[in-house]
Design brief:
Homodimer. The protein has 442 residues and is α/β, with parallel strands linked by helices. 46% of the residues lie in helices and 13% in strands.
């Protein structure tokens, strides 16, 4: 995982909150990052006052973070830019349990697997918040304060503060209790572990704010209640909204796969294309949540969407900002150059193999034997045309291209010198209909 990290301190140095807002709370609301919270006026006052310590947790239930986590990482950074001190918690103990899902028990991963994921996710978190300066971030792991607790201590010292009646009313718990699968005591107890995190961080760091996705609200408020009961103290909580598309579908999915932050699980090319393809109805909200563009800049882009939607200026700005944030400027420039080259606006031979491989996952693709990989066969096999006769007409009319070179012989197999990286042909019909041919057996 470490080889995929983008150390981008320059990005942190250029990030700013928008000073046109009275305080960070007002900016968070404008960006659509407040779905639910404890008493709003008290939380706004706390964030507008002297520095406080706050935390957000990330459970290592996979080797990489995804776009849902990016919402939290950027929210952490915005609050840090307002002068407050972040604690980034990667859950070495909660990751061994896993919070309840809407359906079905989680598979329990081995301690060795979870420990490896902890290290990977810690590495992924670090570039997004600053670990230097007066309000430097700190990384914490809840395994440090849970692994030495005995079952008796856990039940006597922590469990006694939780009421079963309250616990079973939590949304996800209630759904699972009413399902055929039910819920195990292991997952049922997850909210106690997360509540313990808040209590520990309150005691050790004077942490007074926890935030996370609104689907975690039950677990988050378990912590506020535990601190109130044990320490007789009022602490704050914030739930950010779950991001959805304007049509109600789940955001952050592409062809059934999560958009991961790890370049090996989701290539920079795929990542960039995901943002570039955002709908006009969604792109302005994405700019608010996922970029540090000011209100003035985003309002100007909103006018572009309304008046000149064909320019796709908002989408290109979004794709540039987020891909640069996650993968770095060099990778983003390579992706843009590759995208242009694929459609005939650059040197296609300069596209590196990982990008071509990523493109083959996004475009129509066919695996052909190099002995029979003629243009006609390629056009038909990739679905760019419906028949060989149509393919021949396309060639005759000058509308067939291999690696951006117009072809006039549709029957002769492509020579070995044409195969990019020895494996790929880029086939195009007209200006915009693109496909990839791969050498069969590679």
């Amino acid at each position: 995982m470490e080889k995929n990290l983008v150390e981008n301190p320059a990005a942190l140095e250029t990030q700013r909150n928008d000073d046109s807002f009275e305080n960070i709370w007002q900016e968070l609301k404008w960006r659509g990052l407040v779905h639910v919270s404890t008493e709003e006026s008290a939380l706004e006052e706390a964030l507008a006052g002297d520095p406080i310590t706050y935390y957000c947790g990330f459970d290592p239930t996979a080797a990489s973070l995804h776009l849902g986590h990016l919402v939290q990482l950027l929210t952490m950074r915005r609050i840090q830019l307002a002068g407050h001190r972040p604690l980034a918690l990667v859950g070495g103990s909660t990751g061994l349990i896993g919070d309840p899902r809407e359906s079905g028990e989680r598979v329990l991963n081995t301690p060795e697997t979870v420990a490896g994921w902890v290290r990977s996710i810690q590495d992924q978190v670090r570039p997004y918040i600053s670990f230097e300066g007066e309000n430097a971030a700190q990384m914490v792991n809840n395994l440090d304060w849970t692994q030495g607790i005995s079952a008796i201590e856990f039940l006597r010292d922590i469990g006694k503060y939780f009421r079963v009646g309250t616990m079973i009313k939590k949304d996800l718990v209630a759904k699972r209790l009413n399902s055929d699968e039910g819920i195990s005591y292991t997952e049922f107890s997850y909210q106690i572990l997360q509540g313990l995190d808040y209590l520990q961080l309150y005691r050790e760091y004077d942490c007074t704010l926890q935030f996370g996705g609104s689907d975690q609200w039950g677990n988050i408020t378990a912590g506020t209640e535990l601190v109130r009961r044990v320490e007789n103290a009022q602490v704050h909580a914030l739930g950010t909204p779950l991001i959805t598309n304007s049509d109600g579908t789940k955001f952050g999915k592409s062809e059934g796969n999560a958009i991961w932050l790890d370049a090996e699980l989701c290539s920079p090319y795929t990542f960039y294309q995901f943002w570039l393809n955002q709908a006009d109805a969604d792109v302005i909200e994405r700019l608010k949540v996922f970029t540090f563009r000011s209100r003035e800049e985003i309002d100007a882009l909103a006018r572009e969407v309304e008046e000149r939607p064909f320019s796709r200026e908002a989408q290109r700005t979004l794709a540039w900002d987020v891909t640069t944030l996650v993968h770095g400027e060099e990778a983003t420039r390579k992706v843009i150059a590759a995208s242009e080259a694929l459609f005939g606006k650059g040197e296609i031979a300069e596209i590196d193999e990982p990008t071509l491989r990523a493109a083959s996952a996004e475009l129509p693709v066919a695996d052909l034997d190099p002995q029979s990989a003629s243009v006609v066969e390629a056009l038909v096999s990739t679905g760019l045309v419906s028949s060989k006769s149509e393919a021949r007409r396309t060639v005759k009319d000058g509308g067939a291209y291999v690696n951006n070179t117009k072809v006039d012989d549709g029957e002769t197999p492509a020579g070995s010198e044409l195969w990019l990286h020895g494996r790929y042909l880029v086939v195009r019909r007209g200006k915009k209909n693109l496909a990839i041919v791969r050498r069969n057996g590679d």
